[in-house]
Design brief:
There is one protein chain. Helices cover 36% and strands 29% of the residues. It is α/β, with parallel strands linked by helices and 208 residues long. The longest helix is centred in the N-terminal third of the chain and has 20 residues. The C terminus is likely disordered.
């Protein structure tokens, strides 16, 4: 049986996700940080972990982003094969949610419209959206704010865009499972390698 979902509902939920993800840490990560602070032997390390916890507390109470780098909006959308959308085109609905969330939530807008001219879109759109068709009549959306601080490094940015233009560069994807404060997180790295091995670069693209 076909299930109909209004894209207005998608937009509303995307807006809330953008704001919440940038103001509150996941419960498992928050618990892991508290445990790490209790078990930390170094005084300096303990002090830093306690400062991070204080930062989380202030962010939640005063609705200030946990970090000033509120990232590029990356979505993983699983769509049940029995779902029918009514309203806007789904991609437009998601981007409208991002626009509202980053504007009304006073989050930093980091996305540029053109990779060469680098003109900021001023609403953090367009989002990066990965779609998967799955069995059933449900829609599952996972949001990951991708940190954009790395794009401030001209050396990496130049390497990235030249690797798109010139054929001597080779792309290589790698997955790493890292352990942060006892909580496992998967990082997707993309390495672009030139014919000169010393010019190789890696950056974090997605946190799953």
């Amino acid at each position: 049986m076909i299930r109909t979902i209004q894209t207005e509902e998608i937009t509303r939920n995307i807006k809330e996700m953008c704001i919440e993800a940038n103001h509150f840490l996941a419960e498992d990560m928050e618990h892991a940080m508290k445990k790490a602070a209790e078990e930390e032997k170094s005084e300096l390390g303990k002090k830093i972990l306690l400062q991070l916890q204080e930062n989380l507390k202030i962010a939640g109470e005063e609705m200030i982003p946990i970090c000033q780098d509120t990232g590029m909006a990356v979505f993983f959308v699983e769509i049940g094969q029995d779902v029918h959308f009514e309203g806007q085109w789904l991609e437009d609905a998601i981007n409208e949610g991002v626009r509202q969330g980053y504007t009304e939530g006073y989050l930093r807008k980091s996305v540029v419209a053109d990779p060469i001219l680098r003109e900021n879109t001023k609403d953090n759109t367009p989002a990066i959206i990965h779609y998967s068709i799955v069995p059933g009549d449900k829609v599952t959306i996972t949001f990951a704010p991708l940190p954009q601080g790395m794009h401030c490094r001209a050396e990496l940015r130049s390497c990235f865009f030249f690797s798109l233009i010139f054929p001597p560069y080779i792309f290589s994807d790698r997955l790493y499972l890292l352990n942060f404060c006892g909580v496992k997180r998967t990082f997707l790295f993309v390495t672009y390698i030139s014919t000169n091995a010393s010019a190789s670069r890696s950056v974090v693209l997605v946190i799953l």
